Amino acid sequence: MRRITDRQKQVLDFIGDYINEHAYPPSIRDIQKHFKLKSTKGVKDHIDRLVEKGYLKRMDGAARALEVIHPRERSAKKIPLVGTVAAGLPILAEENIEAYVYTSADTVRTEGMFYLRVSGDSMINAAILEGDLVLVRPQPIVEQGEIAVVRIGDEATVKRFFRFDTRIELYPENPNYKPFVYWEGDEDIRIVGKVIAVFRVLE
User: Fold this and answer.
1) 91-115, pLDDT tens digit by residue?
2) Which CATH number fits domain 77-199: 3.20.20.70, 1.10.10.10, 2.60.40.10, 2.10.109.10?
3) Which range has the worst mean pLDDT, 41-55, 66-80, 129-143?
4) Alpha helices, DSSP H, located in 27-180
5) Residues with catalytic annotation?
6) Which CATH number applies to 6-70?
7) Using CA atoms in the order 16, 18, 22, 24, what is the torsion angle rounded to 10 degrees?
8) What is the pTM of this model?
9) Taking residues 4-32, what's their average pLDDT?
10) For residue 116, how many C-alpha atoms fall within 13 Å in the half-sphere facing its CB?
């Protein structure tokens, strides 16, 4: 997060306090009057810098179009939730963005990461449950036994991945399921990415 000047901090605090008191943001002239500035240009410059540095957001189509960004959001990245992946029998992973999930920038260190929602219970012994969100780092290769999102034709699944000379084996983490075994040439199989985190909403 880029640092702001003392004056920018004062402007940001005034906007936040004004919103808390009035339930809507101040106008440019409200800010100009409060800080006894000679013109609105100075106000606009401060606001432009605060938007650029990620402390304010402009809302389209509103006369008083400022929103203070929550500190949690400033230190996080918006990661897309792009569909559902099976932890049971493979099902179609529809690659359309359903929502965005704010995630710590310390966790998201690679561009292109995304979430998938888990369907099924075949990975429960790896603490991946029905409805969980798995954070996926796109990569074409994983180490033996790592948990990966694997595309099989037009379908996708999350399993432990093993590659041998003439076959690929996808192992569940549930004794009620058997491994999926694919022989060379059987299917169009590729690794979509490695699962690096699991997120769960308890309520």
Assistant:
1) 656 567 888 887 877 778 788 899 9
2) 2.10.109.10
3) 66-80
4) 28-34, 40-52, 71-74
5) 122, 159
6) 1.10.10.10
7) -60
8) 0.63
9) 87
10) 29
